[in-house]
What we know:
Blueprint (H helix, E strand, L loop, with lengths): L1 H5 L3 H12 L3 H13 L6 E7 L5 H14 L4 E6 L7 H11 L8 E6 L11 H12 L3 E7 L3 H9 L2 E6 L5 H7 L2 H4 L2 E4 L7 H14 L10 E4 L8 H56 L5 H10 L8
Parallel strand pairs: 1-4, 1-5, 2-3, 2-4, 5-6, 6-7
Bound molecules: guanosine-5'-diphosphate and magnesium ion (MG).
Amino acid sequence: MLERFLAGDERALARLISLLEAGDIRGTALLRDARAHKTVQRSHVIGITGAPGAGKSTLTDGLIFACRARGQRVAVLMIDPSSPFTGGAILGDRIRMGKHHADNGVYLRSMATRGALGGLARTVVSTLSALELFGFDVIFLETVGVGQSEVDIASVADHVVVVLTPAGGDAVQAFKAGIMEIADVFCINKADLPGADRLQREIRAAQELGAHDEHTHWAEIVQTVASNTQGITTLLEAIDAHRVWLGEAGITARRLERARFELNQAIQDAARRLLAAREAELLPRLERGELSADDAVRELLYGAPPPVES
Length: 310
Ligand SMILES: Nc1nc2c(ncn2[C@@H]2O[C@H](COP(=O)(O)OP(=O)(O)O)[C@@H](O)[C@H]2O)c(=O)[nH]1
Ligand SMILES: [Mg+2]
C-alpha cells in the first residue's frame, strides 16, 4: 500500500482515505509512513460553502477546468450532509462531476461522515493531509453552509469562498450566521438573476459596519454565472490574491488553526469515550450532588478519587 501510494496509485489513495474515514489505525500509520518518505508540498485548500442550490458544485466544476488549464492537479472533497433534503443534489453532483473521471489530474471524493456535533468530521483533516501528500496542487472542499460545518470550514481551509445568490434573502441570513467573519471571498453566483448588484451593495455595507483596521482582510466580492462559467477566472484570481495577502506566515497560521481543530476534535472524541464507559456510575452521583462536574472530570482524566463529602 505504501509503495503504491508513493507511486501515485489512486486506488491506494482511495483505500487510505477509507481507512482514515473508518478510524482504522492502519490509516494513520500509513499516512505517517508516507510522510516519512515524501516531502510535502502545501496544496491550496479552498473551502466552498453556501446554501444548498447556491451553485457550489457548478462553481467547483468551473474552477476545476480553470485549474487544469493552469496545469494544476486537483482534488475535490465533497462533504455529503446526512440530510434527506440534499440527497438529490448529491446525486446531481455525481453525474455532473462524472465527466472529470477520465482526467487523471482530477480526483473526486465524497465523504458521508459528519462530526458528532454536526460540524465537519475530523477525518476531513487527515483526508486533506492524505490528498496533500499525494501531490494535489489544489484541493476544493465543498460543504453545505449550515450550522457548525460552516464555522468548521474556516478552521480547515486556507481560503473560504462563501457562495450567495440574489434570490431568497441569502444575505440577511448569512450575516446572521456570522458569515462576515469566515468569508475570504464572497461569490455572488446566479448573477444572471435580478438583484446581484443590490446584494453586492448589502455585503459592502455589512463589511463597512464591521470593525476593521489595516489588519482586517476585506473579502473581495466576485459575481459569477457558474452555469456558463462567467466570472470563474475572476473568482480564481480573487482566491490567488487572498493567498498573496495571507503570505507564508498567514498560511502557516491557518495550518496551525487546522491542527487545533483536529486536536480539539480528538480530545472531544476521547472524552466522550471515557464518559460513555463510566456515565452509568458518575451521572447519578452528579445528580445527587455528591460530585461536582469538575470532580467528575478529574476522576475521568486522572482517575483521582473525588473528595468525599461527609
Ligand atoms: N441561473 C443560474 N443557475 C445556476 C447558476 N449556477 C448554478 N445554477 C443552477 O443551480 C442549481 C444548483 O446548482 P448546484 O451547483 O448543484 O448547487 P449546490 O447545491 O450549491 O452545489 C443547478 O440547477 C444549477 O444548474 C447560475 O449562475 N445561474
Ligand atoms: Mg453541491
